[in-house]
Amino acid sequence: MTDPGFALDCPVPRTGYDRIVMAHGGGGRLSADLLQKVFLPAYGNKILSQLEDQATLDWEGGRLAFTTDAFVVRPIFFPGGDIGKLAINGTVNDLAVGGARPLYISAAFILEEGLPIEDLERIVASMRDACRAAKVVLVTGDTKVVDQGKGDKVFIATSGIGVVPDGVTLSIRGARPGDRIVLSGTIGDHGMAILSQREGIELESTLESDTAPLGELAQNALRACPSIRLMRDPTRGGLASTLNELAQASGVGVRIEEERIPLRPEVKGACEILGLDPLYIANEGKLVAVVPDKDSDRLVETLRAHPLGRNAVVIGEILADGPGIVRAKSRIGGERIVSLLAGEPLPRIC
Amino acid sequence: MTDPGFALDCPVPRTGYDRIVMAHGGGGRLSADLLQKVFLPAYGNKILSQLEDQATLDWEGGRLAFTTDAFVVRPIFFPGGDIGKLAINGTVNDLAVGGARPLYISAAFILEEGLPIEDLERIVASMRDACRAAKVVLVTGDTKVVDQGKGDKVFIATSGIGVVPDGVTLSIRGARPGDRIVLSGTIGDHGMAILSQREGIELESTLESDTAPLGELAQNALRACPSIRLMRDPTRGGLASTLNELAQASGVGVRIEEERIPLRPEVKGACEILGLDPLYIANEGKLVAVVPDKDSDRLVETLRAHPLGRNAVVIGEILADGPGIVRAKSRIGGERIVSLLAGEPLPRIC
User: Fold this and answer.
1) Residue B294: what are its φ and ψ, rounded to 5°?
2) DSSP element (H, E) containing A223
3) Using CB atoms, which residue from B23, B232, B324 is nearest to A4?
4) What is the tens place of the pLDDT at every residue in B41-94?
5) Which of A58, A88, A218, B209 could pair with A130 as two cysteines, CB 3.0-4.6 Å apart?
6) How many Å apart are CA B253 and CA B246, to the nearest integer?
7) For helices A265-274 and A189-199, what crossing angle results, to 10°?
8) Is A30 within 8 Å of A155 (Cβ atoms)?
């Protein structure tokens, strides 16, 4: 959206394309057309509409959080969302778990030649709604087109900027023995929604992605419990990967109780049929926090008071024993080691 | 690089992969492997090495510039650079032409399964060198992998943050009749270097991309001539598109003299053989500035004092006549209209 060749003030001929062609990425008249007919009507705001090569933002000072993510999810539309909603929420959440208040978003689109314009419009509208819900503003962007067969419909890379309130110093290295691990809700919803859509698996009830913006939930948590050591959103690799990561970075042991972890019956059922472990399935709207024991009940209460944290619970604790190791106490009482897998069992889930 | 599943402190087994596999994008052990063996050795800095989901940056206040670009250039290695160098310089330049001092960069990689790790390492090293040359720091990133045949080796989306010095208010709407148009050097080098590489065209001498970081050149220009109305880097769509864009946005006419525009003999020759107009060919290290007449000589001198502006010249002027129209006086005296094309004549040049 901020490339040379975008011509805001010239009359745009109605070209009547219903699919993306290479020239939509060429920086000329068709790029301007796409900008004016698809992107600006959706995202138009005072900053983006300047159409400069960069957005200029007033900044009051203080610390700034900066993050980026590429989204390559397949299929691009799935129950509960689409690649656009995922891209906005994913970037918002990477800011949120750092304790930052998300403010500004950039979006770079890589479109495959032949993509129906209608699909692009649907994604763009969904991103607009996601920005509104997360209270962020999309201020700059870019669009490229690749030849048919050299991409996969649409990839989106989003970056985000947020402000970190004074006093917030979360760190993946901050977990201490005795701390509690709090989870904001059910796990595996996003990954299983994608899988069921992709593989055409029929489930008894519709399973939806949990994609949601965690900015407000995270800010509420930090205000109520400034003692929080760290927060993460367990996306690719699932809760298991997040727990392994913090165990290794903090040099501590982690023990969770499986029966405490909230699980939708349909996710549980689908995982059993497919032989998948929900601990490794991706989430896109869940928060994990490590907090001193004395504040864990207050944190759970605070999370439960927000619609995105209704099922919040303490799922385990941080131990001095077994640094870098994650153990899960099973429903029948045994204990197993929850290791870091080579990769996510379901590729391209985000 | 800032995703769950990256395990900084755990011993990383030598997996011995020499090509990208899907699990390198899965957020598990192989993602951590890629991060530790490829990305961190190249970009390692205090902020990135925190491995949080977001980079946290101190900020003194003032205005902040924010930009993003996706890079899909084909081939990924070309004379004078590669997709990585292009990605860093392109984002640096979008900040620079807004008058900002580029500071921080994010990079999101979309890798195609099967990409040789060696190619990735070469690109990553080139980005590291480009960051150093541009005096920017890569502080956050992400890596995704798509199935073979669903991407094209590697796509990179970079975003950048810079600080806008007090008093700088450049705008694409700022050109006024009587102003001069200054160009920092030869045109068409990047596009023709890509084309010659792609199509295997033999040229008498090696033609190289002009990809370069314009931050210092732009800051020098602004310090010497605070009266500069606007700056742009004429990338996709070439100089013609940049001039059309500013003519339309500022509601002014533009007249350039073709014989003043610096052109390498090999670019001129190749354009003549192929029937291409160099005005439409992409540049990746050139700056166009519009400046009041009285300051144009000083601007040219200032640009010429910098290695990237050695061939700077006044190429034309801003007119009240013919708002939105770009005219070129040809070498033999006639005048033609330089219109905005539908797209870039050479797809995927950046």
Assistant:
1) -60, -25
2) helix A215-224
3) B232
4) 888 888 888 888 888 888 877 889 999 999 999 999 999 999 999 999 999 999
5) A88
6) 9
7) 60
8) no
- The total of other beta-carbon atoms located within 10 Å of residue B137's CB is 18
Taking CB atoms and an 8 Å limit, are A237 and B61 in contact across chains? no
What angle is formed at CA A266 by the lines to CA A78 and CA B29, rounded to 5 degrees? 70
Between strands A154-164 and A101-112, the pairing is antiparallel
Rounded Cα distance between A317 and B23, Å, is 29
- pLDDT, one tens digit per residue, over A111-124 is 999 999 999 999 99
**B198 vs A contacts (CB less than 8 Å):** none
> Do A172 and A80 touch, CB atoms closer than 8 A?
no
Asked if A172 reaches chain B (Cβ–Cβ under 8 Å), the answer is yes
Does residue B201 register a pLDDT over 80?
no
Q: Which of B188, B72, B86 is nearest to B129 (CA)?
A: B86
pLDDT tens digits for range A232-253: 999 999 999 999 999 999 999 9
C-alpha span between A307 and A313 (Å, rounded)? 14
All structural domains of chain B, each given as residue ranges with its CATH number in brackets, are: 51-163 (3.30.1330.10), 180-337 (3.90.650.10)
Q: Which has the closest alpha carbon to B30: A283, A91, A347?
A: A347
First to last CA, chain B: 23
Q: B191 is written with which tokens?
A: 């596009």
pLDDT of residue B204: 57
